[in-house]
Task: structure prediction
Amino acid sequence: MQEEVIRSVLDGRDTLALLPTGGGKSLCYQLPALALGGLTIVVSPLIALMRDQVDQARRRGIPAMAVMSGMAGYEIDNALEDAALGRLRLLYVSPERLGTDAFRGRLPRMPVKLIAVDEAHCIAQWGYDFRPAYMRIPELRAVFPDVPVVALTATATPAVVDDIQHRLAFRAPNVLRSAFHRPELTFWCSRGEDKLARLQRIVQHVPGSGIVYMRDRRGTVELAGVLQRMGVSAEAYHAGLPHTERERVQRDWQDGRLRYVAATNAFGMGIDKGDVRAVVHLAPPPDLESYYQEAGRAGRDGRPSYAFLLVDDADAHRLRERVEGGFPTTAEVRRTYQAFADTHRIALGSGLHETYTLDLRDLGRRSGLKPATALGALKALELNEDIVLSEGVHTPSRVLLTCGPSTVHGLRLNDARLGPLLEALLRLYGGLFEAPAMIEEERLAQVLSSSTSAVREGLRELQRLEVLRYAPRTDDPLVTLMTPRRDAQRLTLDPEALDLRLHRALERVDAMAAYFAPGAGCRERTLLGYFGEGGTAACGRCDRCRAHHHADAGAVDGPDAELLRWEQDQR
Result:
C-alpha cells in the first residue's frame, strides 16, 4: 500500500493510511517530504521513534529535528527557528508542543508543504489511546488550509476511522486500508491453569526466536529465569532496566545470541526483526488493538509464525478489575498531583512546560497509593490536559557553550581544574557554540584520566558559572506540566470525560474477553471483524478451527486439548 498512499499524498489529497505493524508507515510521509520540498511537520507521541527517525534522516543527509518533552527551552527555540528559516525538511513535534507560544509564533513563517499525523488513532475519542493534545492538530490546518494531511495508524475500528477524518477536517473522505489479514500468522488461545507448562511446550515445538509478553516488570525477570531453566537462552527487558542493559538485550536478541526475550510492552516498538516465529502473551492485554500490534511482531518475513495467548478461567475477571483500578477517585488524583509537586519542589504557579522525571514507585510511596493507582491518576491528569506523560527513553547528555570564545580561552589558560575539561569538550565535540552536542561523560573521563562523577560535577559547575548548559542523560519516564502548578485541593476533573473514558475502556475489555472466551469462534475472523473486515472466512489454522476439525474427526477432548492437538499436528 505504500506506493498508493504516497501517490495520494503527492496528488494533494488528505489521506488516512491504515497499515499494519511493520507495514512501513514512516516512508509514506518521508518520501513525499523529499519530493514536495519545503517542510513536513510530523506529529508523533512516541519520543523513542522520533529520536530514531531523526537520527536515520540525518545519516542519509536529510535535515531533520525534533521538538519534544525533555528538551531544554533553548534547544526547542533553535529547532523551531531552523524550521522557520527553511533549514529543515522534517520537523517532528510531540502534540503537546503545538499549543506553545514558541511553536505558534513561528508557525506562520514555516514553509510547510505536508502535515503528517503518526499514531492518528490518538485523536479519536473512540480510540484506545486518546490524547487530548491531538485536538490541536486542526490548528495547523487553519494556518495552512491548502496543505495536505496524511494520517497513519496500524489499528482503527470503523468508528475511529470516521472520527479521525472528521477531527482532522478532511476535505474529502479518503481511506487507504491495507488488509489486516496476516495469512502467515496463526492466532492461538490456550486455556488452562498451568501456563508455564504450556509455554514450555511452545518453546519446544516452535523453532526460532520469540517474545513472551507480561504485564509487570518483576514477572519478566522471573520468567527469563524460568526459560533459562527450560534450556532456552532468554533475558528480561523492561523500562526499568538501565539503557545499556536494554540495548544489550535487544542487540543480542536481534543478532540471534538470545532466542527469547521476556518483556513488558516497552519491547518491540520500532524493532525490525523478520524471523520472530512466536509471540506469546501470558496474560491478555486490555484491548484487541494492543494485542494485534504486539502479536503482529511475529512473522514479518512472511513465513509461518504464531501468536499465542495463554489464559485461565480467572483472566477475564482480573483484566476487568485491572482496568477499573486504573480509574482512581478525584481524591486519589489530588494526592498524586500533590506528591509529584512535593517530590520536585514545584512552587504554586510555576513549572509551565517544564519537564520532570517520574519514579512511579517513589510517587506511589509518597502518595500512599499503589503504583498502578498513581499511574492511573497521572493518566487522568493527562486527560484533563494538566500534564503530558512520555515513555521512558534514553536521552543522551547534551552540552551547549553559552559564553563567548574569550571566556572559554581564559578558563583554558587559567583554570587548572575546569580548563582541561573545556579543552577535552572542544577537542571531542564540534559545533558546541552553535547547537547542543550529545556527549559521553565516560569518554571525557577517559581522556582526562578522571572519574565520571568528577566530570559531571565539573560540567555542573561550568553551568553554574554560565559558561555552558548541561542536560544530564536520563532513562526515566517524563512528565511535562501543561499548566502552571495548581493547588491540589482545588484541582477539578471533568467527570463526564472520565466516565466516558472508563465506559469505552470497559467496552474494549469486553471485546478482548470475548476474543478468548471458551465459546468464541475463529480467532482470526473475530480480530478482522473487530477492525471492520467483516465477512471473512474461517482461517482453518487457529485453535478454534482446529478444534472443530478434530471434533468432526472424532477426537477425544481432555485438559488443554486444543494445544495438545496442535502439537500433534506439528509433529
